[in-house]
Amino acid sequence: MPPSCCGHLSQYTHHHLIVFLLTFFSYVLLHSSRKTFSNVKVSISAQWTPSFQNQSSPAFSPAETWMDNRLFDDEKQATLFLGLLDSIFLFSYAVGLYLSGVIGDRVNLRYVLCVGLCGSAAVEFAFGTLTEWLHIYNVYLYCGLWILNGLLQSAVWPCVVAVMGNWFGKTGRGFIFGLWSACASVGNILGAFLASSVLQYGYEYAFLVTSVVQFAGGVVVFFGLLTSPKEVGLSLECETDLSPVETESDSNRPLICDDEDELEAYDRHCQSVHQPEERPEDSPRPIGFLQAFCLPGVIPYSLSYACLKLVNYSFFFWLPFYLSNNFSWKEEEADRLSVWYDVGGIVGGTLQGLVSDFMGKRTPVLALSLVLAMAALVGYSHSPNDKVVNSALLAVTGFFIGGPSNMISSAISADLGRQEALRGSQEALATVTGIVDGTGSIGAAAGQYMVSLIKSRLSWMSVFYFFIAMTGCSILFISPLIHKEVRSMWTDRRALRRQL
């Protein structure tokens, strides 16, 4: 059984707290600006589609500009293009993740992170604010800007996970990373609040506020972030958490392993590292992309995350639009209600990470949550036109979908990037994170256009059936790991009973 999280927290310094907060809020700001697009889809669709209703509604734009703004003949075409933009963003984001993960293991993480934050803020300002102020409406321009935005944003997540992995070891990682991975959900909540607060003045002001705040955050990160304990002269023990508290037991035992032979190999390694043997002090060399891709557990978790991120990001991109379109609620109200999904994700990621720490295994916790997520999706698909009931069902759905999504993209990715197979060459955390998140983004990208297509040709209920099927596929991909970890748990219990 791992040591208590509270006892482990006493080993951290104020540098750990600063790193935690700076990486946390850098991704909060990125996700708040990303959330803006999904929160203003109704306004954008109305702006791009002249109609009798639009001409009588000055909240969107002066009436004399309607013919100039017309990009599409009806709302259905505008909806399909919005889905296409989501897919374009996620495809470019996925490609960028594969590249930025490799770059992050070879270039100073702080530089890559700041380029991603500030560059993305500038592109979003041009996309949502500058084009509206200059009355430039062009589908090719929108697509080009969104491709560039996806590439720039992809630099952020592998970097912040790698920085956190440098500072926080495996003991307590499920709880710490579960709490830290709430940054995406907190960003969604902040983005929804900022967008709904200024939406009455025009959707361009929602993009303006979030992009300016994100750019300022990038500047703060550039001057304040420490990417590794070595930058402040802390020892290797502080960096990897191989302190006496941890090495007295097997609390640093790999949480992700293929079989019992690998655990035995780990035990033999632990005995050897305590011998007074001279080790080179040269910095570890980064491993190649294909080597990282073939590491144990990377492919199953990547494929599982592709299905799960499809569902999670469909809620992210389409939830406010669904609430407004399906229940005829005002866009500002739909934005505020959508945050309950993120609240559930925050609680789910933290509690499930904590449980996985105490169990010493992550996959069984993940699988159970995904099974319950399928039931939650069935329940939410039948939600009545009642805001209180809808919010409660949203929170439950977010708990069982957002929680596992946060675990895979943060704690599990860090486990994979610091596993036993990497001893002697540990510069792989950003690469592995980029592979897992990049594969997930490919699945999410394909799903966003599917959502708009299914909705336009069938119904929202069919969309939820699609989500349930993808959640089931997510469980299927990690089923071999579930079997191995459950078997390992029973083996450990029998060994403990023999010792007692």
Describe it for me?
The protein is mostly helical and 500 residues long. It is 76% helix and 0% strand. The chain is built from 23 helices and no strands. The longest helix has 40 residues, at 460-499. The chain is globular. Mean pLDDT is 76; it is low at 1-7, 52-67, 236-256 and 269-282.
Quaternary structure state of the chains depicted:
single chain
Task: Classify the helix fraction into a percent range.
Answer: over 70%
Distance between the termini: 14 Å
> How many DSSP H or I helices?
23
Low-pLDDT runs: 1-7, 52-67, 236-256, 269-282
Rounded to the nearest angstrom, the radius of gyration is 23 Å
The average pLDDT score comes to 76
Keywords:
mainly alpha, 23 helices, single chain, globular
Secondary-structure map with pairings?
Elements: H1 5-9, H2 14-39, H3 41-48, H4 52-55, H5 66-69, H6 75-104, H7 109-133, H8 139-153, H9 156-167, H10 173-180, H11 183-198, H12 203-224, H13 236-240, H14 244-247, H15 260-273, H16 289-293, H17 298-327, H18 331-337, H19 339-359, H20 363-381, H21 387-417, H22 429-457, H23 460-499
Structure described in brief:
With 500 residues, this protein is mainly alpha-helical.
